[in-house]
Every structure is written in structure tokens, then in C-alpha cells.
Design brief:
572 residues; Immunoglobulin-like; 5-stranded mixed β-sheet; 8-stranded mixed β-sheet; Zincin-like; alpha+beta
């Protein structure tokens, strides 16, 4: 949920050693490597756990640096690449290296400049295909070697979405963006695709000269492409070690606006000015986070507003946060997503979950820090409101916990068996209005007016609609009356519009069908797209139109989104 309408900013308190983030045990090393611990889990030492989502053996090797050379071919929808990995042996007697790949065409491999034999293993349903490279030498613990792989990506690479010119806002040039979290980097780069391995990287990317390249790294200059005068090369350097899922690439006809001493916002020119206004408080958020948890070590903090098909609200790629255009509400009411992604600069990007089984470590600490930023910029009442809403959402997602044997559950993952108590002054108004609507008789509908929402923030309106979604569907005449007095159809805030359309579809209001189909078409954020598609499918009068809309728009959807929506619509 976003922040309320602008209030006078409160002085930002400086964190004390007892506050979040100052202790060594939380922050880990400044170099950004994953936290190691001697604790045992399920009878195994933590440092002996393997990543069940990776084919690589991180106990044998770790990647220290990646040098990446890419040529972007829009016509073939492929990346032609060379990946030079500086690897370090973690034990003696190693004669081969296994990397993660998915749908990559491997052309050649070398080790320390010598041609090396390589083989591809059996394809796994979600891990992809392991690539094993044999060395003409034996490695000892602590030794390093450079392994270089020449390869091409597939047009169906799960990490990449290729947009035609017609699918962009400008309609003149094609567009490419990546999304590597969680285990999709292996379809773009052969690598140790596990969050337990972190490395620095540098890259050179050749593209048509009218396009711009951005990556999750600091820009390091431009060069002519000596092989093709119609192209140029963009250079990048990331000096802080990162896991593979944070490698990011975008190519498009992009413009930028300066929004702070270390920040720019990037997008197609049609959105760049609106984005600059929406995110003008970025530097304030950065400084607030630094006061809470320490220096920002990444150099640049830029924002990129992606095309509507981007499947997430935001992605915390270092130096370049990706965000959805659905955040452009016009009133900064959804800018808390930026606070969330900024927080990931410490919790996630510097200190990272060791495997994807422990992803909650990334997101849990980041949500906490996001809310602390909100408290410092606005007030404690806001933090209490958002924490209370989050707690209720967690309980809704876990009713099943009432059936758990707590003595056994004590030794397993789960939420604590207690209920926190929050200030509910902002929530109470939402609950009161919800009750008024659910209990009103037909003769009492005339008592509602636009004044009901006059003093409510965008976050309270979101909460009001979310509470109604927990109730049985409203009668159709109530939904029609709600539109008459509140005009939710005219609101630009995507979080409000999403919940309002779900409410309408559940009440079987046929006028909401085209509005919902429009929302799943003009943007591709999975948080909105999947639930709306499911609600449309469950509305029998909308079902065939929903399937037809999906099939028509599937080629322009992100491959991850399209695959999951197809399951939601029972098409696979």
C-alpha cells in the first residue's frame, strides 16, 4: 500500500546501535556476501545446505567476477554473448565446473584461454540444463581460473521479454527488458544461478545506435561498434558483489530526467515527465534509509519505468530499480513501492537469502525498513496502519494455522503464536464504512454521499475496498450506488481500481467486464492481472470474452505472466 497525501515531513531520527541494521549480525560483511551461520536446520549445518533450485555446486566453486559481452539482435530475438567467469576453487582436486543454463545454445568453452570440453546434461523441469565444463588441469583450493563460454539465448528465454515497436508507447523502436528473479538468469547467462554466490561484473552491450542500454550497474562510458557502424556499445561496471538474479538489462528508446543528486528516472519519453514528478521524493527516501541503516554503497540510484507488461510492482536491481507504470497515480500515493525497493539496497542486495527457501528474509526485513521510512517521513500512525493491514493480510492467508499442533509447530517455520496490537484509528474509519455498506437496506442507500471518502487517504480507500472483498458479494444495486456516489471508475490509482473492479465482478455487474478486460490488457503486473483474470473467468457471462482477450494479447505478455494466467484460465 502507498503513502497518504503529503503531510509536513517530520525530522528523521538517527538510528541507534540497538535499532534495525546497525548490528554486525544483521548487516553481515560490507562486501555484501551472504550471511554464514553455524546454526543447524533439520539436522544439517546451514553451511552444508544445497540450493534445490540450482544445478551448480556452490560448495566446490564460487564466482568472483563476470565479464559479459552481449550483442542484442532484435530481429532474431536473441542475445549473442560471451560470459567470462572468474571462478575460485573452494576445495582441492577439482577438474570440472557445472553451471546453470536454460535453453542456451552453447558454442564454445575455454578455461584459462585453453579450449575446454563441455557437455549438457538432462533437462530438468524447472532447473533447466546443467552445463559441465572439463578442465585440462586440476584446481586446488584458493586457485582461480577464467572460464569463458560463447553462447546464444533462445527467443523464448524466460528472463527476456522482447517488444515490437508497436508494443511500446513511442511505436517507433523495439524494446527489451529482463527479469531474472528468481531463477531466470540462467536463460540469459550461463552462471551459478543461486543467491548464495555473489560476484562483481562488468558488461559491454552492442545495440542499434538509436537505442539506450541500462543495466544493474553504474554506467562506464560508450564505444563505437567497430564491427557495425550502425551500432554502438554501452559499458557498465558493478563493483559490489551481487547474486545472479540481480543482473538486469534493458534496451529501448529511453530518456531520463534528473530527480536528485544521485538519481535519474528513465522511461520512454511519453512517461518520463510524469514519472519525474511522481518520484521526486526519491532522494528524501534514500537519506531517510541511510539514517536508519547506514551508507548507500551502490553509487547511483536510478528508476526505470517499464512498459505496461512488466509483471511486478518493482524489482530491486542495484543502481537501477525497475517499476511498473501502474505506480503513476498522479498524487504520489503509491510511492511507498520506491521506499520498498530502496530498502532492498541493504536487505536483499547487500544481505541476501542463501537459498530461495529463505526468501522471506529478503522481503520481511525490507517491508520492515519500508515502513520505518514511512514513519520517519510522515508519522508513526502511518506505520501502525500499514503494519495492522499487513498483519490482517497474513492471517487471511494462513487460517489453516488454527489446525496446527503448536508443540510440533514450534520446531518448524511459521508466524509467532501471538497477536500484535496496533493503533487502529485510521483503520476504524474503514471498518465503519464497510459495515455501513454491508448492513444498509435498499431504503438506506440514499444516506451515502461523496463526503464519506472526503477525509480518507488513498491507503484508507484501498483498505475499505479490501475489507469489502472479505465479505460476501454485495448486491448489485449497492455496487451501482457506490459508483454513483464515489465514481471509483474514474480513479487512476491502480490499487483502488483493481479492488473496485474485483468487487464489481463478484457482484456480477456486467458494466465492469470491459473495464476489467481493459485493465488486464493495458498493464501486466501479476498482482493485478492474475486475480482479475480469475474473477473474469468465474463470471460466466465474461468467460469466453476473457479467454479470447487472453489469447489475443498473449504474444505481448511477459512469458512468466502468460504461463501463469493460462493455468488460471484452465487452458493448460
Amino acid at each position: 500500500m502507498g503513502m497518504p497525501a503529503r503531510r509536513e515531513a517530520q525530522p528523521t531520527p538517527r538510528a541507534t546501535p540497538s535499532h534495525f541494521g546497525r548490528s554486525r549480525c544483521l548487516m553481515g560483511s560490507r562486501e555484501g556476501f551472504s550471511i554464514q551461520t553455524d546454526a543447524s536446520v533439520g539436522g544439517r549445518r546451514m553451511d552444508e545446505q544445497r540450493d534445490g533450485s540450482s544445478c551448480t555446486e556452490a560448495r566446490d566453486y564460487t564466482t568472483r567476477h563476470l565479464a559479459l559481452t552481449l550483442r542484442v539482435d532484435f530481429q532474431a530475438r536473441r542475445l549473442q554473448g560471451r560470459a567470462a567467469l572468474t571462478i575460485e576453487a573452494l576445495r582441492d582436486g577439482l577438474t570440472s565446473l557445472t553451471l546453470d543454463t536454460r535453453d542456451l545454445k552453447i558454442i564454445k568453452a575455454t578455461s584459462n584461454g585453453l579450449e575446454a570440453e563441455f557437455s549438457l546434461g538432462d533437462e530438468h523441469s524447472f532447473k533447466g540444463t546443467p552445463l559441465t565444463i572439463s578442465f585440462p588441469f586440476e584446481m586446488l583450493r584458493g586457485q582461480q581460473a577464467v572460464v569463458e563460454i560463447s553462447y546464444e539465448t533462445s527467443p523464448e528465454a524466460s528472463a527476456l521479454q522482447w517488444l515490437t515497436a508497436e508494443q511500446t508507447a513511442g511505436r517507433k523502436h523495439p524494446y527489451l527488458f529482463s527479469q531474472c528473479q528468481a531463477i531466470h538468469c540462467r536463460s540469459m547467462v550461463p552462471c551459478q544461478d543461486t543467491p548464495s554466490v555473489k560476484s562483481t561484473y562488468n558488461a559491454r552491450v552492442s545495440v542499434p545506435k538509436e537505442l539506450v542500454v541500462l543495466m544493474s550497474a553504474n554506467r562506464d562510458g560508450e564505444l563505437p561498434d567497430n564491427h557495425d557502424e550502425s551500432r554502438k556499445i554501452y559499458c557498465f561496471r558493478q563493483t559490489v558483489p551481487i547474486p545472479s538474479y540481480l543482473i538486469a538489462l534493458v534496451v529501448g528508446c529511453l530518456e531520463s530526467r534528473v530527480i536528485g543528486p544521485r538519481s535519474r528516472v528513465w522511461s520512454e519519453k511519453e512517461m518520463v515527465d510524469a514519472a519525474a514528478r511522481e518520484f521526486e521524493e526519491t532522494e528524501t527516501m534514500l537519506k531517510t534509509a541511510e539514517n536508519l541503516i547506514g551508507a548507500y554503497v551502490w553509487g547511483q540510484y536510478d528508476l526505470l519505468v517499464l512498459p505496461p507488461s512488466f509483471p511486478y510492482g518493482g524489482m530491486e536491481n542495484p543502481c537501477l530499480t525497475f517499476v511498473t507504470p501502474t505506480l503513476l497515480a498522479g498524487d504520489k500515493s503509491l510511492s511507498n513501492v520506491i521506499a520498498h525497493e530502496i530498502s532492498h539496497s541493504w536487505t536483499g542486495n547487500l544481505v541476501t537469502n542463501k537459498t530461495w527457501e529463505h526468501f522471506w528474509l529478503n522481503e520481511g526485513h525490507t517491508v520492515y525498513l519500508e515502513r520505518m521510512i514511512g514513519r520517519c517521513m510522515f508519522d508513526e500512525e502511518l506505520r501502525q496502519f500499514e503494519a495492522n493491514s499487513g498483519w490482517k493480510s497474513l492471517l487471511e492467508a494462513t487460517e489453516v494455522l488454527d489446525q496446527i499442533d503448536w508443540n510440533a509447530w514450534f520446531h518448524s517455520p511459521g508466524i509467532p503464536p501471538f497477536t500484535p496490537h496496533y493503533n487502529t484509528s485510521l483503520t476504524d474509519g474503514c471498518i465503519s464504512l464497510r459495515k455501513k455498506w454491508t448492513t444498509a437496506s435498499d431504503s438506506e442507500l440514499s444516506c451515502f454521499s461523496e463526503e464519506d471518502l472526503k477525509n480518507m487517504s488513498s491507503q484508507q480507500k484501498i483498505e475499505f475496498l479490501a475489507l469489502l472483498l472479505l465479505e460476501p458479494p454485495l448486491r448489485l444495486n449497492k455496487v451501482e450506488k457506490m459508483q454513483e456516489v464515489y465514481n471509483f471508475n474514474g480513479i487512476k490509482n491502480a490499487e483502488i481500481k483493481f479492488r473496485w473492479l474485483r468487487l464489481c465482478l463478484r457482484s456480477r455487474w456486467e458494466k465492469a467486464i470491459p473495464l476489467a478486460l481493459q485493465m488486464v490488457t493495458v498493464q501486466g503486473r501479476m498482482k493485478f492481472t492474475r486475480p482479475l483474470y480469475r474473477d473474469l473467468y468465474n463470471f460466466e457471462k465474461a468467460r469466453q470474452q476473457t479467454i479470447d482477450t487472453f489469447m489475443k494479447n498473449k504474444p505481448s505478455m511477459h512469458p512468466i505472466t502468460a504461463a501463469l494466467v493460462a493455468k488460471d484460465l484452465h487452458l493448460v
